[in-house]
Amino acid sequence: MNRSPENSPLYILGIESSCDETAAAVVADGRLICSNIISSQVELHARYGGVVPEIASRRHLELINLIIEQALAEARLNLSELDAVAVSSGPGLVGALLVGVSTAKALAYAARLPLIAVNHVEAHLYANFLTGAGVRYPLVALIASGGHTTLLLMPEPEQIIALGRPVMTPPARPSTRSPGPWAWATREGRRSTASPRQAARMRLNFPAPTSMKRPGSTLASAVLNRR
């Protein structure tokens, strides 16, 4: 593919291996998805009732090169035509992340490309910019991702304010009575109750807003500046 330097798109290869999916995608200018290849491990872990980290890591190791090759082929690009390599660096399963990060480092080194470490929870938020829908600020976003579920406020691009996160408490002692109420604490101190069936209780703690503005810390900050 021949591209003129002055008006060529910014092509970035993204690699994801934080849990039980091996994935690679090529995105142009942070908006256009040129390819998106995903290999799921749902059937592999189904017999265990959950993700087994060691099995997930070994499967990533088997598939990651093939997934990247398919992503580049679908985008009709080769390594020399990329502008950067991005990879999920956490949070996630340590062994699974190690496979993706090691692969991304090797590719970036071999092709002499910048390497971008991406917080995969932040990536959940910025993935909305790839849908083609117009995004206006300020906005409130809910990230529902296992133990990383978070309610966020974005007053403007690159500025993320955490409004609340769930905090798990120990299960209640065995009892014939129904579990106690599910407490929700807010910054204003208001409380409401419900009666979940699970013995485990969870409370949602809303701390004082904490700005997590880190210009240049994510792939999104790089591509949003190119708008």
Notes on the protein architecture:
By secondary structure, the protein is of the alpha+beta class. The chain has 2 domains: 11-133, 2-Layer Sandwich (Nucleotidyltransferase, domain 5); 139-211, no CATH class. Helices cover 26% and strands 30% of the residues. It has helices spanning 42-46, 53-75, 94-111, 120-126, 219-224, and strands spanning 11-16, 21-28, 32-40, 84-90, 115-119, 139-143, 150-156, 159-168, 184-185, 191-192, 202-205, 210-211. It is globular. Residues 169-227 have low confidence and may be disordered.
Question: Concise description?
Answer:
This protein is an alpha+beta fold and 227 residues long. Helix content is 26%, strand content 30%. It has two domains: 11-133, 2-Layer Sandwich (Nucleotidyltransferase, domain 5), CATH 3.30.420; 139-211, no CATH class.
Attribute tags:
five-stranded mixed beta sheet; five-stranded antiparallel beta sheet; single chain; 227 residues; globular; Nucleotidyltransferase, domain 5; alpha+beta; 2 domains
How much of the residues is beta strand, in percent?
Answer: 25-35%
List the secondary-structure elements in sequence, H or E.
Answer: EEEHHEHEHEEEEEEEH
Radius of gyration: 21 Å
Q: Name the CATH architecture of the largest domain.
A: 2-Layer Sandwich
Count, helices: 5
Number of strands: 12
The profile of the biggest β sheet is: 5 strands, mixed
Mean pLDDT: 78
CATH topology call of the largest domain: Nucleotidyltransferase, domain 5
Choose one word for the global shape. Answer: globular
Query: Helical proportion?
Result: 25-40%
Counting helices, strands and paired strands, the structural category is alpha+beta
- Find the CATH superfamily of the largest domain: ATPase, nucleotide binding domain
Structurally, the number of domains stands at 2
**Roughly how many Å apart are the termini?**
23 Å
Strand order of the largest sheet: 3-2-1-4-5
Report the uncertain regions: 169-227
The CATH class name of the largest domain reads Alpha Beta
